[in-house]
Structure formats: structure tokens, C-alpha cells
From TrEMBL:
The lineage of its organism: Bacteria, Pseudomonadati, Pseudomonadota, Alphaproteobacteria, Hyphomicrobiales. It comes from Chelativorans salis. This is Uncharacterized protein.
Length: 166
């Protein structure tokens, strides 16, 4: 009669096979260290912001009635603009137009009141777009001040902002 020892499958495993579970666990512990977030380039650097935005950013102030009509038209087109913001990955020119302080009354104020929910959706789209968000953030513009976005010809986008340039 042949006597079997208490061996089982582990006794016949090679040293590498016995170490494999340990090596797999070690790999899971070390993997997060391969991409440390502390080494990422900060967004305070102008070069990082320019690389994200990737387009010329211009600022100006609006003062006339023709601009008011343009702003109202952009506000009325806010839902479409919000969708376009989410889909846009490159621009040639981004213009930021600061609206006068008295826009709370008149046609611009009425359009803002009428389209408040759509404007909030637009702001969320801008916040979700690295390119648009860093374009406005680099100019110290608060999302709550953004009123409308207008997509023009030749890959030019205009963002209308309440207040004056800081």
C-alpha cells in the first residue's frame, strides 16, 4: 500500500506559483504610485492655460444698443450654445465681452430673467469644458457672471459677461 502525505496542490507548486498571489497584491499597491498627481503641471502657469485654451483670447466692453440686440439673440440661443460648448474642442479666437453694469434692466435683463434655467445649463457646460472654463477663470471671471455664448463664423466664440473687466 502506498502512503500519501498531506501535501495537496501547494506542495507541487513551484516557488514562482506560490509567490504569484503576493506579486499581484504588490502590483495593486504600487500601481497608484506610477501616476502621482503631485507632479502634474499647475494651472497657475500661463503656459498651461494657453495649452488648454489653445486659442487667442480677447476682451472688450460692450456699450451700444447694437451689442444689446446681439446679446439678447445669444441669450435666446442659450440651449444650443450650451450643447456647442460641450462639443467644442478647439477655437481660433475666443472673445470675452463685458456688459455694462445696468444690464439688469432693459432688454438684456428681461432676456436673462426669461432664460435663467438655460443660462444655468450653459454655465454648467462651461464648467465641464476645460478649454472654456480656464479661458474665463484665467481672467478671474466668475461663472455666475456669464450671461451668454455666441458661436460665430471662422471658429470665433464670444462669451458675454456681466460686469466690467478686472
Amino acid at each position: 500500500m502506498h502512503v500519501m502525505g498531506i501535501a495537496g496542490p501547494a506542495a507541487s507548486a513551484t516557488p514562482l506559483e506560490r509567490a504569484l498571489p503576493f506579486l499581484v497584491a504588490l502590483m495593486f499597491l504600487i500601481a497608484p504610485l506610477a501616476n502621482p498627481p503631485l507632479l502634474a503641471q499647475g494651472l497657475e502657469s500661463e503656459g498651461a492655460i494657453d495649452a488648454i485654451i489653445g486659442s487667442d483670447v480677447k476682451t472688450e466692453e460692450a456699450a451700444n444698443e447694437e451689442e444689446a440686440e446681439r446679446v439678447v439673440a445669444a441669450i435666446e440661443n442659450t440651449l444650443s450654445s450650451a450643447e456647442s460648448v460641450r462639443k467644442t474642442f478647439s477655437l481660433d479666437t475666443l472673445e470675452i465681452v463685458f456688459l455694462p453694469e445696468d444690464t439688469e434692466t432693459g432688454p438684456i435683463g428681461e432676456a436673462i430673467d426669461e432664460h435663467r434655467e438655460e443660462i444655468e445649463a450653459l454655465r454648467e457646460s462651461i464648467e465641464g469644458s476645460a478649454m472654456f472654463y480656464h479661458a474665463v477663470d484665467s481672467r478671474s471671471i466668475m461663472l455666475r457672471d456669464i450671461v451668454a455664448v455666441e458661436f460665430g463664423e471662422e471658429n470665433v466664440v464670444t462669451i458675454f459677461v456681466n460686469g466690467s473687466e478686472r
